[in-house]
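re: ur question from the group chat, yeah i did fold both. here u go
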Amino acid sequence: MNSTSLFLLAADAEHGPEHEVATWVTVLFAAILVAMVAALAFEEKIHAKKSIIVGFFAGVCLITATLLHLLTFGEVHLPNGHEMDLPIYVPAIEWGVITIILGASLFVEVTSRSGVFTWLAIKLTKKSSGNPWMLLIYYGLLTVIFSAVLNNVTAMIIIGSLTTVSLKKLEREDLLLGFLLVEGLLTNVGGLLTLISSVPNIIVGKTAGISFVKFFIVAAPYVVLATLATLVMGKVIFKISGYKTEEESNKAKELVAGFDENESIPSAKFFWMSVAALVAFIACLSAQSALPFGLDQLGMGFIALMFAGIMLLAYKHEVDKFYSVVDWDLLAFFAGLFVVINTMEHAQVLEMIGSGIGAMLELPQSAASSLLLASSAVASSVTDNIPLAAMLAKILETNLSVVNAQPEMSASPFWWCVIFGANLGGNITPIGSASTVVAMTIIHKQKLNLSFMGFVKAAVPFAAVQIVLAIIYVLVAGPILL
């Protein structure tokens, strides 16, 4: 257990509830939670950013909890015997998650300026020789990889823009809708590949104590299976096939030959530096738990911030432009969310919900796993999967030791049900994940006809297959891999 975990445990002990909470108080806070989730679901109609919505509810929770004497104010006792006088909401925030997102975002933003990601995408386009089916395979695989090492929004922006340019140059705009939809769905599949590929992975993985390497070993086989299934379905449903005549093939090859992968590289030196940094970044994250001299205790957030700092040295006189593109709304959203979750814990809302989850977990494991995964997916399709993952992680952490008595908490398949469900549910509706929102934005920008319900109708068959495969995978392969 690292120093951050010890700090948070000490803070929880200091501020934990000291008396029984009245039922009406628990119901009141549960209503506040439902209201927050509903507000997040209708974010577009409210015309407010996530951070504002959650920040407002965090304030409501703190004021209400203070008036009802649910919070204990005072100094926080640290493991080393020292005491700190902190605002009561500071220890409630999971700073490890905040630092990972901040560091990784800065690192990716600077690295992308080298052109390394665009270079790779254009290389694959030329390798396909303009064959639409091969292009779908290459772009699909690239979407999964980018979603795993970057984030699904960045992946969709890069791949979506390249797909638009490529298909227009190949004079195959008729395939654009199918390509963009499949790529949008694959961003959430790729988001399952590593511990840092998506925010729900970070939240659940950190709570469960799942290492970077173990996460990859368990998730990778499913990601391969789901990617292949999605690509084949895309080929059939959207009628994407190779060229039937030699004349069509030669014309496509001629068009692709005009692509220049080096056009996006401003500096060869910076390009190769970025490649080396990207490899080292992934390697350090993979081996974080095995770092020597006690460095493993610094956590993945420190690694992300350190590499971001190293890459920012290349732009040391203009770092402000990189700070300006950081998703501060997302970071503020997380800070508020953790405060809300913390007050819900003091109001015993999590205990109330946990009793229902606990009853589910007492079912035969196959039924419990299937129900938990499917319900997580449905819930994440209509609301933000981040608070969903945070809530379920907290509940599972409380229930697993009692229900399953696992010698190692991370060995429970229920963690993976939440991880798979929270990520794959984003493929059911266009508001289910940020990347599907981006995909719809690109689709509308290209004046392609796809409504909200049109997306649902087209995406549900893909999502259903992915979710069923996930359930089967957890039930069949889970006992072996875990």
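okk and heres the other one u asked abt
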Amino acid sequence: MKDSIARAVAAAAPRPLWLDLADATGRTPEGAPPVAGDTTCDLAIVGGGFSGLWTALLAKERDPGRDVVLLEANAVAWAASGRNGGFVSSSLTHGLANGADRWPGEIATLERLGLANLDELEQTIARYGIDCSFQRSGKMWVATRPHETYELERMCGLAAAHGRRITPLSADQARARVDSPTYLSGALDEEGYALVDPVALAHGLRAACERLGVRVHEGTPVTDLTSTPRGIVLSTPYGRVGAHQVALATNVFPSLLRRLRLFIVPVYDYVLATRPLSPEELASLGWAGGEGVSDCGNQFHYYRRTPDDRILWGGYDAVYHYGNGLRPELDQRPETFLKLAEQFYETFPQLEGVGFSHRWGGAIDTCTRFCAFFGTAKGGRVAYALGFTGLGVASARFGANVMLDLLSGTPTERTELEMVRSTPIPFPPEPVRYLGVELTRRSMVAADDRGGRRNLWLRTLDRLGVGFDS
């Protein structure tokens, strides 16, 4: 069995499925030209992922006359925005429990704003005719260990206490939706989750931005940010961009504001995708509802059907490399792919022998409070949003609105939130950073194996309100 699993993983293409699907369907747009010479604008946005794209689009919708330039070092959707599972969550706080623990006085507002943000995201996709396989199909959590059943009961109770509808499921009810012998119970959120082809969404947002007049430049890394009496100057290899205001949407990559680098660590997440399943193979799963699925461990899996009937299967390992390691070769990790494949076949033994078409990885911008933080610099002329910790597909849109609010200088409901006004605890310097992350990761594995019991280290982090997650 292990040899056949190794062959199945080795045969998979070492690149993101979503980028290949865009190429195969002829939907990959032509590359946008790099900056050529010096230029000026009202608003410059650094980063062409979801955070930067939403900032550009919303800036033009707020003020169609605003001159907006978007600068991307590589290509739109090349990094995290094109490597994720396509789960679109309404949560702005990496889950209701995390938000309720950190901001109990405003969690009702955060939940309301999160659901509104998801609604508006859906409306924007429809308004601009973005073909990205968006479906508001919900998400099912499943318990695969006895103690996780209790965790799901707590989740449903917490949701009910805050006016959210998450439905508890028995083992039979969960298996009636997606058939796996590993399921002990489940919970279904039908309003707060959607699924999307993330690359198609990013490409559609880029096209919408360009139609509104945003100047998009790919292949244009920004190497320096300088404040002058007249504004902000961004240096690139091909020219300088002078801007009245700047929005930094650089995600996991080292920020142009050096002080922010203390708050983010890159955590690598890995994904497999099967070949397209036959009608008979799909029938063996009974997966007719289209919902995404996640189990409940500290080291958890997330999985879903794709628009062309593959299963995307990711998560579990969350790997930090010493010194904030962030290199292309880290996108591939054979030991993790083998582990994921073994766990896939354990979850779905009826699919034994189904091969994998793609394997890939990418870095997540993790911070100690597990959700985004925001702020300004350079006299309020530079805004930033980062630290989305794996739930940025939708919350990046909220972050874009926060950055634009902050740059406007006018208080809004968003900017008055304690979540927006506060910052996470920074990570310690190396080697303490690496040792702390490794100790946390191993403690989380041990908790999964010991009925959820958290050791002294994890309980101490809980009391301090800090941690490490993907």
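fwiw on the second one: The chain has a mean pLDDT of 95. DSSP finds 14 helices and 19 strands in the chain. idk if thats what u expected
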